[in-house]
C-alpha cells in the first residue's frame, strides 16, 4: 500500500483540511472520516471527479451516493420543492440522518437518479464541518468499500484497492466523532410524504 505517501505529515486540523480542499479543487478523490463511517469523496459539482468515484467503487448506482453540506440552508440550494419539515429534521436530529429529497439540482448529473432525488446530510463532525465551510461546495460521500462488499467498520477494514485508488487520505487522528455505523435514511416527498428507508 502507498498510504503513507498520501498522508499529511500529521500537522493540525487546518493543514489536513487545506490539503484535502486542494485535492478536491483539482478534481481529485479523497478518503475521509465522516460522522458515520470512512467515506470516499470528491467535489459533488465535478462530473469527472464523480465518475472517478464510481470507477473506484466498481459501481454506477446513483442511489449509492449522497452529498454532505454544511447547513440546511446549503441543502436548499441543491434541491427544490422540499417540504419545510426537511430542514427541521436536519437541524434537530441528534444522530446522523440522510434525507432523500426531491428536485436534486446544482450537482453533477451523475449523482441524480432518474426519479430526480438527491441524498443530503449535514454532518456533525469536526473535520467534515471545517472542510465543507472552507471548500464551500457540497461533497460526495459514499462508504469506503468496493461495490457488493460490506461497509468498513473502521479504517483497518478498508480495502487496499480503495486506499491505493484515492488521491489523499485524511490522517486517522481526525476520525474522532464517527459512529462507525451508516446513517439513518428517510425519504421525503414534495407533499411531505415520509418513508423510512433505514434506521
Main pleated-sheet profile: 9 strands, mixed
Overall mean confidence score, pLDDT? 90
Largest sheet strand order: 7-1-2-6-3-5-4-8-9
The run of helices and strands is HEEHEHHEEHEHEEE
Backbone shape? globular
Helix content: 25-40%
Helix and strand content put the structural class at alpha/beta
The rounded Rg comes to 16 Å
Characterize the structure shown:
- This protein is of the alpha/beta class and 199 residues long.
- Helices cover 27% and strands 19% of the residues.
- It has helices at residues 13-25, 47-57, 72-76, 85-92, 126-135, 160-165, and strands spanning 30-33, 38-41, 66-68, 97-101, 118-121, 139-143, 168-169, 184-188, 194-198.
- Strands 7-1-2-6-3-5-4-8-9 form a 9-stranded mixed β-sheet, with helices on both faces.
- Helix 1 (13-25) crosses helix 5.
- The longest helix is centred in the N-terminal third of the chain and has 13 residues, at 13-25.
- It is globular and about 45 Å long.
- It starts with 12 loop residues before the first helix and ends with a strand.
- The model is unreliable at 1-5 (pLDDT under 50).
Brief descriptors of the model:
199 residues; 6 helices; globular
Topology (elements, then pairings):
Elements: H1 13-25, E1 30-33, E2 38-41, H2 47-57, E3 66-68, H3 72-76, H4 85-92, E4 97-101, E5 118-121, H5 126-135, E6 139-143, H6 160-165, E7 168-169, E8 184-188, E9 194-198
Parallel strand pairs: 1-7, 3-5, 4-8
Antiparallel strand pairs: 1-2, 2-6, 3-6, 4-5, 8-9
Helix pairs in contact: 1-5
